[in-house]
Structures are given as structure tokens and as C-alpha cells.
Specification:
- The protein folds into two domains: 199 residues, Carbon-nitrogen hydrolase (Nitrilase/N-carbamoyl-D-aminoacid amidohydrolase, 4-Layer Sandwich), CATH 3.60.110.10; 203 residues, Aminopeptidase, CATH 3.40.630.
- Helices cover 26% and strands 23% of the residues.
- The strands form four sheets. A seven-stranded mixed β-sheet has the order 3-4-5-6-7-9-8.
- Strand 10, helix 7 and strand 11 form a beta-alpha-beta unit.
- The longest helix has 17 residues.
- It is elongated, with a radius of gyration of 26 Å.
């Protein structure tokens, strides 16, 4: 994954201005200050949106990368798909580039044979058989750029399809999936044996394994599904995802509550040698939380204190100001991990310098690439005495893909007025990183 340039690094020379209080003595002034970082330098933009004709050139380029040797969409096919069912055609745009897409139509699945091939089910890709009164969303293609695999982009596309099925009160999603990994084993086993091994987790397939992990259930194996798919030897897996919110008869029930899955990290501050060790430990927790399909993962307050394992300083005040010099690296790391693992990250809190002022700041890294921050408002006596931490001045509420959230850092949650302010601003979840 490409990285962004950072303005300030741990080796950047900085000015100093910290006040250390001693018992009954005049405060002593040290120095270490730093220009505030520009979060815009670290933000990316990743979004799932509907395809437009302006995306055509990017789509066929992506198709050529994903399916070398296979025919790409014609302009007429894309025009037909967007005319017939524009809501069912999605793409992922990441910092201006199309890195994934999927196509679908609605059918009455009972009208088709369960072994119908790709050409019949999609009218050769033109989807002119789209039936607005049907009960099944049928996926005819999904692709993710090879350069961006491992970032759970397929999950974003499948989630877009699932939400569309819920919104349109469809009974299910059905897909005919490739098994490209079979190409290596066709001489030693049948397609059925290969699929069974993938199902039993003794083997993995780049497509089928992903589909199973996204909640799809294998119904059968279809021969002669797509003759041009030589890697799959023409076979496809028929998979189904059932919409448990489906209401027969078209009368949708209203949901007054929605589920949000949270992962809360208990973080051990074990000694580390460098920032890479810190990054590895953080990525482990984010990976696990993403594996559970959590919407948010929450780290503790001041957990970046672990970086002091290799930071030398003569006093607590100077130590935390040196710690603040790692802010650009911390922000860059968590912004990339939020996108890579498709999860919103409440990055605990981290000491951050704004000129000469030291603040305890909680960062929210959204999976769409945006970054938000909340300053701690009520500073404890020890934070002020030993480190010279200064308070923020406002409660912020942030819009996320799972509702509006606020962050109150540790001691702040003990002041009911802050919760009332957050709720009045629309907060539905209040996160409390603490140590």
C-alpha cells in the first residue's frame, strides 16, 4: 500500500517549551515544541459508489488486470447495465482510482434452472432480463485490482450488495463464483474434490474462500458456466446469501435499532525495540477485530506510551514531548490500517504538540480514509503536574457509517454534562478510551 510523505518525523529538530512543576519551587521551563500536523496530508478517500459511464475506461483497465486473456466489457454492455439497473452497479474509488467493482441484476430465480450459465443469467452481460419484481439479486461479476488485494475491498462490495438487498426487500443474493485456484489441481482432482477441500479449509481459493468468509453458502457446482474461464475449467460455484430482514409480500418492517459490533482492546505495554514493533502489535489487534467483522476497534488511552521503551529523556515532561514527535508516524499507521482492514479505529489517545502546548488527543480513523480528533477536556492533576498537559475546549460529534459517535477520554466521562452535550449534538455511541 502506498505511503504518504510526512512533514514531521521523530528526528525533526524542534523548539522547546514545557513547564515542569516542583513542590514549592518555581516552575522550571524545558523546551520541545512542534508545529501542529496537517491531518489532510494523511487522509485518503475511499468510497463505494455507483458506476457511471465516465468510469468505463477505468473499468476495462481493471478487468484486464483481474482477468487476463478474458474479454472485457464493451461500452454497449456498460451502457445497458446503467440504463436497466444503475443501482446494482458498484465500484470502489480510492484516492481517485477505480480499484474494485461489481455488477448485478434482479431476477425471479425460480424461473431459471439452477445450472443456468453466465450468458443466460445475464443476457450476455446486457442484463436486459432484469426483473424489478424479482426476489433475487444476482451477481454477475466482482473484481478487485491485484495491487490492492488484502485490503478487504471485496467485503466492501459484498456489503454494498447486502445493503441493496435489504433496502429493496429482496429474498437473497445469488452468485456464480469462479474457482481460479483449481487451475493448479485439475490434473490431480476433480472440481468437486477441490471445492470440498476449500470448504473444509484444507485449501484456499482466492475467490471461493473470500465468498465463504462473507457469509455466502455453497449450494452446488455448475459445469460449463463460463467457457472463457480456463482457470476454473468452466466451473462455477452457486452460492447464496439469505436476507434475514426479507418480508414476503413487500411490506417491510421498520427496524428501530441496528447492530453495531465493537472490539475493545486490552493492550499490554510490553517492551519494544522500535516503531516497527509497535506497528506490528497494533496491526495484530486490528486484524483480529476485522476478522470478527467489527465496525469499530477501540484502543486504550495513552497506549502509545509503549514507544517510551526506546525514547531516552531525563524527565517525564521531556519524555512525553519526544513521544509527541511520533505523531505523524502514528497517524499514518492507523489511517492505513483502518482502510486496509475495513474497520473504523478509535486510536486510543496520544500526546500531541500544538506549537508549545501539549494535549492528550484521541484520533478517530474512519475506514473511508477520513481522520477526526477529540482533545481531552478535563486534565488530571498528575497529567498537569508531571507532563504539563493542557485541556481542549469542545465536545465533537463525528458522522460515521454506523451513526454519529463522540469520544470522551478517560476522566472526561465522569462529568455528566459532557455526555449530555454529546447526545444533544446527536451522538448515538460514546467511546471512552481509558487507562
Amino acid at each position: 500500500m502506498a505511503t504518504k510523505k510526512v512533514k514531521n518525523t521523530p528526528t525533526t529538530k524542534s523548539k522547546v517549551a514545557s513547564t515542569v512543576h516542583t513542590n514549592g519551587k518555581k516552575p522550571r521551563t524545558n523546551t520541545i515544541s512542534q508545529e501542529p500536523i496537517d491531518l489532510d496530508e494523511f487522509q485518503s478517500k475511499i468510497e463505494v459508489r455507483n458506476v457511471t459511464m465516465a468510469d468505463y475506461a477505468d473499468l476495462i483497465k481493471l478487468q484486464s488486470e483481474c482477468f487476463p486473456g478474458m474479454a472485457v466489457w464493451s461500452r454497449e454492455q456498460i451502457e445497458s447495465q446503467l440504463t436497466v439497473f444503475p443501482e446494482g452497479q458498484f465500484c470502489i474509488e480510492y484516492d481517485g482510482d477505480i480499484v474494485g467493482s461489481c455488477s448485478s441484476l434482479i431476477i425471479d430465480f425460480e424461473e431459471y434452472d439452477s445450472t443456468a450459465n453466465w450468458s443466460d443469467i445475464s443476457e450476455k452481460g446486457f442484463i436486459t432480463n432484469h426483473d424489478p419484481e424479482g426476489d433475487t439479486l444476482y451477481g454477475i461479476e466482482i473484481m478487485v485490482s491485484p495491487q490492492f488485494r488484502g485490503m478487504k475491498l471485496a467485503r466492501r462490495l459484498y456489503e454494498a450488495r447486502k445493503q441493496l438487498a435489504r433496502d429493496m426487500n429482496l429474498r437473497r443474493i445469488v452468485i456464480g463464483g469462479r474457482i481460479p485456484g483449481y487451475d493448479q489441481y485439475r490434473d490431480s482432482m476433480t472440481a468437486r474434490e477441490y471445492v470440498e477441500k476449500v470448504m473444509n479449509l484444507t485449501m484456499t481459493d482466492p475467490v471461493l474462500t473470500t465468498q465463504l468468509s462473507n457469509g455466502f453458502v455453497l449450494k452446488r457446482l455448475i459445469p460449463n458456466y463460463l467457457s472463457s474461464d480456463s482457470e476454473s475449467d468452466g466451473f462455477a460455484t452457486l452460492l447464496e446469501w439469505a436476507n434475514i430482514d426479507y418480508v414476503p409480500g413487500g411490506v417491510k418492517r421498520h427496524l428501530y435499532a441496528r447492530q453495531v459490533r465493537l472490539s475493545l482492546v486490552q493492550y499490554q505495554l510490553r517492551p519494544i525495540k522500535d516503531f516497527k514493533d509497535f506497528a506490528k502489535q497494533c496491526e495484530y489487534f486490528i486484524d483480529v477485530a476485522s476478522g470478527y467483522k467489527s465496525d469499530f476497534v477501540v484502543f486504550p488511552e495513552m497506549f502509545t506510551m509503549q514507544l517510551l521503551s526506546f525514547v531516552n529523556a531525563k524527565s517525564p515532561a521531556r519524555a512525553v514531548r519526544k513521544l509527541a514527535s511520533y505523531t505523524p508516524h502514528y497517524v499514518e499507521l492507523f489511517s492505513e490500517l483502518a482502510i486496509k482492514y475495513n474497520i473504523n479505529v478509535v486510536g486510543g489517545s496520544h500526546f500531541t504538540l500544538d506549537g508549545e502546548l501539549l494535549n492528550n488527543v484521541a484520533y478517530l480513523f474512519l475506514r473511508n480514509g477520513e481522520i477526526r480528533q477529540q482533545y481531552k477536556l478535563h486534565i488530571t492533576p498528575n497529567e498537569r503536574h508531571w507532563w504539563g498537559v493542557q485541556p481542549g475546549d469542545s465536545v465533537n460529534v463525528f458522522q460515521t457509517d454506523r451513526g454519529k459517535v463522540a469520544i470522551l477520554i478517560c476522566y472526561d466521562i465522569e462529568f455528566p454534562e459532557l455526555c449530555r452535550i454529546a447526545v444533544e449534538k446527536g451522538a448515538e455511541i460514546i467511546f471512552v478510551p481509558f487507562c
